[in-house]
């Protein structure tokens, strides 16, 4: 059991809004260039960073861009020039960045971004779910999901450390409103501590005119595949780099994210018969449900992937091996198939010796509140899951309001 | 090609060690934009970073693992060369202030940061990036090479395609005279952003173009150059006549050559006895339909001529 709340007793905690806390964490990483555009619920990050620059607390070039598209594009130029570059966005903004972000991966530029997760239009909604992050799944960006504000800060610092070692961009996800607008105590690392953990960026190639290089060349079929394979290899390398980084992070900051090499965070999962798998802030509610079951003597546990890319497949195989049922709680889905998250977990278990029955639950979409009793009902429902159940039975939308549907719930 | 020519050894003539735009690129014979790249690099020199948009000059210059660029060079995507250059510039501002030893160059003011895009990449799809870069005041020279259509994808109409020109997306037909709009005035748009130095130039006058590149690079802040660069393939003319066609566009007034400083026109390349536009239209395949249907063709040519005359008057183009 490794949790984010194992504070070094000497560390002071501050209470501030999630977006401000993340911005102050970014300040400690001392980026050369920050380029970001406002969008709810991320806006607080860009506002706070602007303020820190205006007050002279953060010595970064702050580019007041015209759009998220050009936030990503300017970060690409800055990163190629050798700068440490940061951006932040959400939802539609992440979609607008999608085209340049894929190239940031292909060009191996370690831009780090905080993504305040929010649903994608239409209908327009400003509230949290994971549709935006999942839509960027195949771009070659590292992705992490924070459970609380402290992790949202720490994942940005870990993100820079790992991204700059494996030369891939990173998306540090934290749930819109639930984490961006919450005020909770967190330790904000100072620049001195961070500089020990995160030395200045030292890229192998830059746009230095004294050593001219061509970056972003055009590749024909005889070369392109290898560039994609190199991204895959860097993703695989990132597993070990991340594992080392969380260990050193623990030594420097006293917060322990080292369970399963930093890939998974689990809660009473070791002996659990019934396991709930989820990412992000919903884990806090799941912990309460697990506690209640444990008080009643029932072996329920939680497994929370902290890292989504690279996907923690071997760790999930191990963590879910002995479960009688697995309930995947997810705030996204891929229309025409199923939750992408559930699909990936099932894929991870294809090679496993033991394959527990898995049922996925699409919930908490666009900010719909998920209560402990909702999760307890899911745990009970998942107990009925069997390996033989049909595809239709393997996914549930427990929060659907049939009265709003034309013809009711007839899936 | 005769066997005599094939047997000759041209090796001596192919040595271009001091050039920053190296031969061996894949541009077509008579490519106007390729000449523009040569002049840009000659004027800017080696202490330069080029951010290039996707387009002809990108694909013909950098098929991996080869590159024609002797300067630092980055290509990212079609519509963001201005932003990539702005990001490079911001990085150099940060290095200069925070960590001067980061670079071998003495200070960031020594580095020329140049964004290059074709007319489609600049005036159309990259317009937002260009506007943002200029409005924020980055120390970047943006050069739009104008070959008047999307040539890399096979001659589709852009907002720089002249009135009456046939492209694959503005075909002439029973109900169409070809492209039905005039060229978007990018120089004025740039000047209206408060850009301190804006100029137009043609590859037919390398001396003038290179001087403008040099002058622009001396000025702090955003700069915008619009360089005219004919495309023999897309326009349908003899590839030996690229420079001639570029010069005729200037002499007819279709492409006026001028400078704007702090929003005011400060110099105009005056034309004595402007040539009528049909002289320039006739040798080009993309206008041939205008000379087939006399009535429709004449009306279209007249309309184009009127637009040219109006601009000439506004600019004080006539000597």
TrEMBL record, chain A:
<feature type="region of interest" description="Disordered">
    <location>
        <begin position="193"/>
        <end position="217"/>
    </location>
</feature>
<dbReference type="InterPro" id="IPR050722">
    <property type="entry name" value="Pyruvate:ferred/Flavod_OxRd"/>
</dbReference>
<dbReference type="GO" id="GO:0019164">
    <property type="term" value="F:pyruvate synthase activity"/>
</dbReference>
<feature type="domain" description="Pyruvate:ferredoxin oxidoreductase core">
    <location>
        <begin position="272"/>
        <end position="375"/>
    </location>
</feature>
<dbReference type="InterPro" id="IPR002880">
    <property type="entry name" value="Pyrv_Fd/Flavodoxin_OxRdtase_N"/>
</dbReference>
<dbReference type="InterPro" id="IPR029061">
    <property type="entry name" value="THDP-binding"/>
</dbReference>
<dbReference type="GO" id="GO:0047553">
    <property type="term" value="F:2-oxoglutarate synthase activity"/>
</dbReference>
<feature type="region of interest" description="Disordered">
    <location>
        <begin position="385"/>
        <end position="411"/>
    </location>
</feature>
<dbReference type="Pfam" id="PF01855">
    <property type="entry name" value="POR_N"/>
</dbReference>
<dbReference type="InterPro" id="IPR033412">
    <property type="entry name" value="PFOR_II"/>
</dbReference>
<dbReference type="Pfam" id="PF17147">
    <property type="entry name" value="PFOR_II"/>
</dbReference>
<keyword id="KW-0560">Oxidoreductase</keyword>
<dbReference type="GO" id="GO:0006979">
    <property type="term" value="P:response to oxidative stress"/>
</dbReference>
<keyword id="KW-0670">Pyruvate</keyword>
<comment type="subunit">
    <text>Heterotetramer of one alpha, one beta, one delta and one gamma chain.</text>
</comment>
<feature type="domain" description="Pyruvate flavodoxin/ferredoxin oxidoreductase pyrimidine binding">
    <location>
        <begin position="25"/>
        <end position="242"/>
    </location>
</feature>
<protein>
    <submittedName>
        <fullName>Pyruvate:ferredoxin oxidoreductase or related 2-oxoacid:ferredoxin oxidoreductase, alpha subunit</fullName>
        <ecNumber>1.2.7.1</ecNumber>
        <ecNumber>1.2.7.11</ecNumber>
        <ecNumber>1.2.7.3</ecNumber>
    </submittedName>
</protein>
<dbReference type="InterPro" id="IPR009014">
    <property type="entry name" value="Transketo_C/PFOR_II"/>
</dbReference>
From TrEMBL, chain B:
<feature type="region of interest" description="Disordered">
    <location>
        <begin position="158"/>
        <end position="180"/>
    </location>
</feature>
<dbReference type="GO" id="GO:0047553">
    <property type="term" value="F:2-oxoglutarate synthase activity"/>
</dbReference>
<dbReference type="GO" id="GO:0030976">
    <property type="term" value="F:thiamine pyrophosphate binding"/>
</dbReference>
<protein>
    <submittedName>
        <fullName>Pyruvate:ferredoxin oxidoreductase or related 2-oxoacid:ferredoxin oxidoreductase, beta subunit</fullName>
        <ecNumber>1.2.7.1</ecNumber>
        <ecNumber>1.2.7.11</ecNumber>
        <ecNumber>1.2.7.3</ecNumber>
    </submittedName>
</protein>
<keyword id="KW-0560">Oxidoreductase</keyword>
<dbReference type="Pfam" id="PF02775">
    <property type="entry name" value="TPP_enzyme_C"/>
</dbReference>
<dbReference type="InterPro" id="IPR051479">
    <property type="entry name" value="PorB-like"/>
</dbReference>
<dbReference type="GO" id="GO:0019164">
    <property type="term" value="F:pyruvate synthase activity"/>
</dbReference>
<feature type="compositionally biased region" description="Polar residues">
    <location>
        <begin position="158"/>
        <end position="171"/>
    </location>
</feature>
<keyword id="KW-0670">Pyruvate</keyword>
<feature type="domain" description="Thiamine pyrophosphate enzyme TPP-binding">
    <location>
        <begin position="54"/>
        <end position="227"/>
    </location>
</feature>
<dbReference type="InterPro" id="IPR011766">
    <property type="entry name" value="TPP_enzyme_TPP-bd"/>
</dbReference>
<dbReference type="InterPro" id="IPR029061">
    <property type="entry name" value="THDP-binding"/>
</dbReference>
<comment type="subunit">
    <text>Heterotetramer of one alpha, one beta, one delta and one gamma chain.</text>
</comment>
